[in-house]
Every structure is written in C-alpha cells, then in structure tokens.
DNA sequence: TCCTCCCGCCAAGCA
DNA sequence: TGCTTGGCGGGAGGA
C-alpha cells in the first residue's frame, strides 16, 4: 500500500512550480530520495552540460522521471480512493487553486524556453503535455489557443504544435495594435464608457440596444485572426468556429490594451466589445457571462505570460475587475522593431519595441511647427512614471528598496538560461539608458522650447538668458541653474508663487516646470469618459496605493480651488504605475527622495538627466560625476554646491524656504544661500515655543554615534554657522515649524563643522500641506530604515554625504535665528 | 453574495 | 467512424 507521502511529494513539485519567479528551464531541485550523484567524472560532467544545453534532452529526462512517478501516483490515487472515505479523499485532492489555468500555464511555459533556438524547432505534442502535466486535454487547448493568438505556438498538425516562444511577440503586438487602431477600439471603449455614464441617468436599459447597434455600425466588420507572415494559422475548425475561437478573442483582448490609455481594460468593457462584434442581438446576460468566463481564461494565460496583471478599477458604480497591460510597450508606427532572430545566439530581442528617443520625440511632436500637446501614450507614460515615483516614495514605508528579481520582473520576461545572461545585462543597461533618456525627455517634453538647444554655441551660460517658460504650472517649478564649470546643472524647485517671483527677478534662469505640470494641453481623449480610476494591484501593491487614496480623499475638500496642475497631479497619481521606472530604482532613489521630501524648494543637480546612467559615465565619471551613488548631491569636484553667491542674489528666493539639505554647501556658498526666507518667519515670529528639537537632534546624533555623548549641537546649526547674506537678511527671526513635518538633512562630515542644513516644509497653507508619513525610524536613508547615515571621506578629502530624514511627529520645532 | 473559473458535455470538423 | 478541437454554461470554491 502506497502512502500519501507520494502525493505530498507531488504537491511539493507543484508548489515549487508555483513560484512566481520560476523561470523556464531552471534545473529542478534534486529529490532528496535520489541516490548519491554520480561521481564527478568528465563523462558525467559532459552529460550534465549536454542536458543543460538541450531542452529536448532535459525534457526527455523529465518525461521519463515523470512517467515513472505518474504511474506511481496513479496507483496511489487508486489506492487512496479505495481506502479513504469520500470526504477524506476530496480533502486530499489538490485545491481548486492548484488546478487553476494560470498555474497550469506556468507549468506549461516552464517546459519551453522563452526564446528557443530558431535553428532547432521544438515541438509540442499534446498527448505528452497532458500526460506530463496530468491535466485534461481540454485545458491545454485553452492555453495553446491563447499562445497561438500571440504566435508563440502554431499548429503543425493534429495533436502537434510548434513552439516559437517570444520571438514573434513584438511583431505580433505591433500588428495587433495596428489592427486595434484600424478597428477603432478606442472609440468603442469610449462609447461604452459614455453609454455607461449615460445609463446612470437612464437606467431603463434602452441604451443597450442602442449601444449594440453603435458597436455594430462601427466600421470594423467581423474580424478574423491576425496572422503574421510565416506563422500560418491551421486551426482545425478554420471555417466554423474561427471567429468565436479563444484565439480571436485573445487577440482582440490584447488589442484593447494596446490601443487604450491607460492600458487598463475592464472585463466588462472587453466583454461588451467582444459581444458587440459577434452578435448584437445577444447582448443578454448569459452571453455576457460566457464572455466574461472566456476572458478570465484568456487573462489567466496572459497573466502567466506576464503580459497583463490584474487590477481593480474603482468607478462611481463600484469596483470592477480589470487588467493592466504589463507587457512590452508597443508604440504606433514603429517600423524598425528589430527581431534578433538569431539562430545562433538564442538571445531574446533586447529591444522589445523600445523606440529610440528620436522616434519617441517624433511620435510626440510629429509636426515641427505646431506643437500641440496632445495626449500621447508615451507622454502619459512619462507623466505616470514621474507621479508614480512620487507616489511610491510618498506612500512607501521606510523599507529598503528591494533590488532583486522583482526588478527584472518589470522588464520583459527573460529566460534564465545562462546563455542569455549577456542579453539580459544588455537589456538592463539599455533599460537604464532608456530611463536616462526618459529623464531627459521629462526635462524636454513639456517645454521643449525651454530646453537648451544642443548647438554648442547655445551652451547654457550663467550670463546668458536661457529663456523663461510659463511659470506656476506646477507646485514645484524647477529653475535650472547651469553650472558650466562642473558641467552639471541644478534645478531649484520652488513653489509656483516663488517661481513667479523668480521669473521676475532672474530672467537669466530658465524655468522649467516639472512634467505633468502643465495639464492644459494634456488631456485625454477619453478623460471625460474615463472615470476616476484607482488601481489596486494585489497585496503588495495595496500598501502603496492606500496613501494615494487617502491623499485623494484629503484633497477633495479643496477641489474647487485647486489648480489645474493639482488636478493633473491627482490624476497622475491615480494612474497606474509604470514599470519602466523600476529599472533604476537604485540610481533614482536619491533623486526621488529629494523630490519627495522637498516639495517647497530644493536644488536638484541635473546629473540625472545627463549622466544618470552609471554605465554611460565615461570620461566624466573620472571627474567624479558618477563615482558615488550620492554624486548627485555633492559637487563633482569639491563636494560643495557650485552656486556662487551672486547667483543666489539674483535668484532672490522670497518666501520661507530652506535651502536644500541634500546639497553640501561650503561655508562660502552657504554664505549666499537663502537658508531662510522670511514671509513665514515674520508671520510667526511671535511664536517662541520651547525648542525641543535641540535635545531631539542631539539625542539622535549621539544615538547614531555622529557626535560624542557630551557634545551638543545647536538646533539650527546652519544659522549659527552660516552668515546670512544681505539678500536673505530679512529672514531673521524665528519660525515655528508646522507639526508633523519632515526635516531632512545632510551631514557633511566631520560633524563638528556643523554645516548641515535643515529643509523645512514651505509656508504653504496648512490645508495644502500633506501630513507626511511619520516614520518609525528617525533616519531614513537610501539604504533602508535601519541604515545609519554613513560618514566617510575619500582620499582627496572630498566628503561624502549621507542624508537622512528626521521626522518630527506632531510637535513643534522652533528654529530660531540669531 | 458575488467573483472567479474549473469542469466536462457535446458538437463541429478532421483524418 | 473515431478522434481532435473547442464553444459553452453549470456550478462550486473562495474572497
């Protein structure tokens, strides 16, 4: 009598395969009961290498093992059935989840490489698959049909398919997008949403027929399977059920993602569109339910392929299941998608529809003369990425950023074969450079006329006016401060009100509002129809989303007075995250942090725009630009902010804004830095509460060992050690910091120089000030919550900075000035 | 209660 | 005629 132990071993195998990070062709863990391995002889070594190199051989081996074990399992099953009571037997069966199509698809995909060698076709025999996966044939058809729709497999003969992997995927997606555009799916989606909206006021259901006829009257006729040249479609029932097949449905479903912005499609809308195309008269509930069922089937497979991801769309009428496209970007009219269909390298195409910057710009601004800001998918992505960055930082707990396989997950799925590693690395690098380009585009997209022209003669110079952009588009309008000596420009982020002032006072500087700032030109075609969308992306994402929701909720009371930029901000915050931005979390984290913590005024060296990619650092890297993770925060050479006093005098930053703390200031530079400005100080000068910050600060500094136990650091060391320039002399006085604010500071070691600065929150209206998340840790560093700020100095004596965030929860901190 | 989707019937179509 | 393919919807597990 076989015991259920065997069954347990089987489910262990299932669990192993359920690992989300499980990639095809990973070497299966050796069963414990396996006898000791062969001696490490050259023959066995060769055997193993051959096995590792050839999926066929490995597959055969696996098959042999599986067939051995499957017969045992069958026997076990039979015995169990005989010896266990009905209930017990049912309990011993795998749960519903373990039999899901998604899991099955994972197992199916694990059998084949993502990018198989084209010289060596791998075939799929359905009998074998059903046997090995121990699943009904019917289920395999579901998977194969969807894969067929993406041309990842094609039917060769009865019971026999060819595995293409992802080689054809970019082409397929491009074709699907094109067909989707031709079929005007976007209009259909808008129409459906519009009808839904109207239906709220006309709930008698008469609209259904109208909608159906509208959908039917659209130009697109019954659509057939989208084929690729060279990938023939040989369905068994070519004529009969072709148009209803899961294949075609799957393609249409994918098209909806590819043409819509944001790339989120609710099942309801998808089902309606699919029904609308099929039989208009059957827009009844049962038909609808059936379509939804099929869409779930398709979505499960697409999710396993990591092309989509389940989310929920919250609309006025409730929460609806939807899916978000997480596959490669597919831009319209991209002609030069190159498939690296090399038969020798087996490498994945490293540029899955990733366009060059030029193409992106071309697509964004096709007509040179007229630069209307239309909502373009690329544009939306940039806005999304920025706002999601902000959202992530704002809402994220003080946990370290995990840079692991999850980072890779945001990329197009790669096989994990060793031979493809170079391609992966290359792709990573390209992704990084792409992100850099994105950053550049973020700088240039919205006000391209404001970006310095690349001509050498037009190099930005301090004395040369660079043009002024429309100000106050954003709550944080950056001012670019070029610094030719270092080749690094800095941006001062100011409040709009200050930006106005600054524009007035300093025509020599360029105002460059943040992307997303100007929303007047960025209007979705369907924004009127689209509802407020918030996405919930499962457990891990939910935590990030919650603050967004609360943020939105908190902003509601002031909706009337909100500016367009604020509306944009909110809308952008509601937009789904962009996976691209994950690629360089490490490099961008510092920038993100500063973006997050200095909503009022701060300086951001623009090295990220130009040298953001470490891999791209060449000669400048030697100069120290990219040598440090924190290079963005310190001067390339001296570690001090390259900002002469004259510049700051010119800037004349008016209101209560404390200079960036994430920048090291030399005493000379600090002399001119408008460390404090005055408006708020004056208004609150009467407040002279006890100063708890000093003790708190000293406690912290002592706690982390930055100062000896006996040493006391004044609460406002900046002010004590920094002579205030004449321009900022009216910043004298004292101020009371609003409660619950985050103070971020940078240490410049040695600490007894005391030249670290506080960044305080702006003197914005209280209701506009978001209560910052009070962290459990006093210090928030890029390294994580438990990472203490580090102090070090290099051999040249250049001081490294490390920054931390001091959160003062719900208490007043008074910064007084002598 | 509703969402999700497994399961298997059964018909179309192929060899 | 037997087998493959796959549309379809009942109904159960799970949230």
UniProtKB/TrEMBL annotation:
InterPro entries: E2F, E2F_WHTH_DNA-bd_dom, WH-like_DNA-bd_sf, WH_DNA-bd_sf
GO MF assignments: DNA-binding transcription factor activity, RNA polymerase II-specific; RNA polymerase II cis-regulatory region sequence-specific DNA binding
Location(s) in or outside the cell: Nucleus
Residue ranges with Basic and acidic residues bias: 543-561
Domain of life: Eukaryota
Listed Polar residues bias regions: 787-805
Keywords: Activator, Cell cycle, DNA-binding, Nucleus, Repressor, Transcription, Transcription regulation
Main location: nucleus
GO biological process: negative regulation of DNA-templated transcription; positive regulation of macromolecule metabolic process; positive regulation of nucleobase-containing compound metabolic process; sprouting angiogenesis
Protein family per UniProt: Belongs to the E2F/DP family.
Protein name: Transcription factor E2F8
């Amino acid at each position: 009598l076989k015991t259920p132990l065997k069954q347990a071993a089987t489910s262990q195998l299932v669990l192993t395969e359920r690992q989300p990070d499980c990639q095809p062709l990973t070497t299966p863990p050796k069963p414990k009961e396996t006898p000791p391995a062969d001696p490490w002889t050259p023959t066995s070594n060769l055997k193993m290498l051959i096995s590792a190199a050839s999926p066929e051989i490995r597959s055969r081996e696996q098959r042999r093992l599986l067939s051995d074990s499957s017969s045992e399992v069958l026997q076990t099953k039979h015995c169990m059935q005989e010896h266990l009571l009905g209930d017990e037997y049912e309990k011993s069966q795998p749960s519903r989840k373990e039999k899901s199509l998604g899991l099955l698809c994972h197992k199916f995909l694990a059998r084949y490489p993502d990018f198989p060698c084209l010289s060596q076709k791998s075939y799929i025999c359905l009998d074998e698959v059903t046997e090995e996966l121990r699943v009904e044939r019917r289920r395999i058809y579901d998977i194969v049909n969807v894969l067929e729709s993406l041309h990842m497999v094609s039917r060769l003969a009865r019971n026999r398919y060819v595995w293409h992997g992802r080689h054809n995927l970019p082409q397929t997606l491009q074709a699907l997008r094109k067909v989707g555009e031709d079929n005007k799916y976007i209009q259909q989606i808008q129409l459906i949403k519009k009808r839904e909206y109207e239906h709220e006021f006309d709930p008698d259901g008469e609209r259904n027929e109208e909608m159906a006829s509208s959908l039917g009257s659209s130009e697109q006729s019954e659509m057939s399977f989208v084929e690729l040249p060279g990938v023939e479609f040989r369905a068994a029932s070519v004529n009969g059920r072709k148009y209803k097949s899961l294949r075609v449905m799957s393609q249409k479903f994918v098209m909806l993602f590819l043409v819509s912005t944001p790339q989120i499609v609710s099942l309801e809308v998808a089902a309606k569109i699919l029904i609308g195309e099929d039989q208009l008269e059957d827009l009844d509930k049962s038909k609808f339910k059936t379509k939804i069922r099929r869409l779930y089937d398709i979505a499960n497979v697409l999710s396993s392929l990591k092309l989509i991801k389940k989310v929920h769309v919250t609309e006025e009428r409730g929460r609806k299941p939807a899916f978000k496209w997480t596959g490669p970007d597919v831009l319209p009219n991209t002609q030069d998608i190159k498939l690296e269909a090399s038969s020798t390298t087996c490498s994945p195409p490293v540029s899955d529809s990733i366009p060059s910057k030029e193409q992106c710009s071309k697509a964004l601004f096709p007509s040179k003369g007229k630069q209307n800001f239309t909502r373009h998918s690329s544009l939306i992505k940039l806005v999304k990425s920025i706002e999601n960055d902000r959202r992530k930082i704002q809402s994220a707990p003080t946990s370290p950023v995990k840079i692991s396989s999850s980072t890779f997950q945001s990329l197009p799925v790669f096989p994990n074969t060793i031979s493809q590693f170079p391609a992966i690395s290359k792709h990573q690098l390209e992704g990084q450079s792409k992100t850099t380009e994105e950053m550049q585009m973020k700088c240039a997209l919205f006000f391209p006329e404001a970006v310095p022209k690349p001509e050498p003669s037009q190099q930005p110079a301090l004395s040369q006016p660079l043009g002024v952009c429309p100000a106050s588009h954003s709550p944080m309008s950056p001012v670019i401060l070029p610094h030719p000596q270092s080749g690094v420009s800095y941006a001062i982020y100011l409040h709009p009100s200050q930006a106005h002032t600054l524009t007035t006072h300093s025509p020599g500087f360029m105002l460059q509002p943040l992307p997303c700032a100007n929303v007047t030109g960025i209007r979705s075609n369907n924004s009127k129809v689209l509802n407020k969308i918030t996405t919930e992306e499962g457990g891990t994402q939910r935590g990030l989303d919650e603050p967004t929701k609360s943020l939105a909720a908190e902003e509601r009371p002031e909706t009337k007075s909100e500016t367009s930029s604020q509306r944009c901000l909110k809308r952008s915050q509601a937009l789904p995250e962009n996976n691209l931005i994950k690629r360089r979390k490490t490099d961008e984290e510092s920038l993100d942090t500063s973006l997050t913590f200095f909503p009022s005024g701060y300086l951001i060296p623009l090295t990220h725009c130009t040298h953001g990619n470490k891999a791209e650092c060449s000669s400048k890297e030697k100069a120290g630009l990219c040598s440090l993770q924190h290079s963005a925060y310190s001067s390339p050479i001296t570690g001090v902010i390259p900002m002469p006093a004259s510049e700051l005098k010119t800037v004349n930053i008016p209101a209560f804004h404390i200079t960036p703390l994430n920048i090291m200031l030399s005493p000379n530079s600090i002399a001119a830095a408008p460390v404090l400005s005055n408006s708020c100080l004056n208004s609150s000068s009467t407040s002279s509460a006890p100063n708890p910050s000093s003790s708190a600060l000293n406690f912290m500094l002592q706690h982390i060992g930055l100062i000896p136990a006996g040493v006391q650091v004044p609460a406002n060391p900046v002010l004590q050690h920094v002579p205030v320039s004449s321009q900022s002399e009216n910043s004298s006085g004292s101020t009371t910091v609003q409660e619950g604010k985050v103070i971020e500071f940078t240490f410049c070691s040695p600490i007894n120089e005391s030249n670290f600065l506080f960044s305080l929150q702006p003197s914005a209206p209280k209701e506009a000030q978001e209560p910052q998340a009070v962290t459990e840790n006093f210090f928030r560093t890029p390294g994580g919550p438990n990472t203490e700020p580090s102090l070090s100095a290099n051999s040249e004596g250049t001081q490294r900075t490390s920054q931390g965030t001091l959160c003062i929860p719900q208490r007043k901190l008074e910064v007084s000035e002598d």
